[in-house]
# Entry
Amino acid sequence: MVTTTTSPRPGGRTAAAAPASPGRIRRRPAWRRAAAPYILIAPVVILLAVFIFYPVGSVFYYSLQYYNPTTPWDNGFAGLDNFRLMFADSLFWTSLVTTAKWVGFQVVFQLILGLGLALLVNEVFRGRGLARALVFSPWAVSGVLTTGIWLLIYNPSTGLFKLLGNMGIGDGTAAPIADPDTAFWATGVAELWRGVPFFAILILAELQSAPKDLYEAANVDGANRWQRFRFVTLPHLKAVIILSTLLRGVWEFNNVDLLYTLTAGGPADVTTTLPLYVSQLATTAQDFGYGSALTTVAFVILLFCSILYLRLSKFNSEKV
# Structure
């Protein structure tokens, strides 16, 4: 057997064997480390570009064009002509006023009714689970199905008003969505039925997280039910109310499905909102240039109103 020894060092000590040199750490090039975050977010950016940025950019582009597939010989650059046409379009101004009235009516009453229902089903009582299911169920119904339900209710031959007429209340021949004096409000009631659960769900979720010690302190101080609601519940709900009203306002501004399927903007254009007018221009008149210009104006209005609302409400400030 062969043995190996290390040569002694001066001073009589034996030199220790040199340790094996560790492997060198391979470091990625600096450009790869810098590019890694952009590579990771690239799929999201591509999806946004395809499904959001490109369609929005197309709307802005066509708003400056004459574009009607039925008359291709007239297509071309229009400049600001589509926007100038709005000032002489009486239906544009009528639809804009109708839109403002529709959004105001829906948001205010949906908030009030949703808040009331949320406070009701937040209480402890027998059958609360069933009550919550009934309150939230309209939110699960699509706009077209909601239209079918309310068409049956408003049917002058078999609907609610016929039933009331048989009971001696009214003449039983009322047709709310066919009368220009009542069509807007009848359509609004149908949308209220569908939209109130949205506020009820969000407000109830926020009520569930309300700190119990604040209510206990209010009870100790002798606060009554109204004072507890005003000084404890409402401040706690402020953020969710601001956010929910903003979201619902945007959605109601863009509401098309229920209005289109229930009244198609009639009678006499009393339920024609701006988005519904744009939809009619695109599907019926095929005037995509003017429709894109109206869409651009609607986008600017929504953006301005949203920013103004958030600034005035001081959303996400320290006081919220």
Remarks:
- The longest helix spans residues 30-62.
- The chain is about 65% helix and 0% strand.
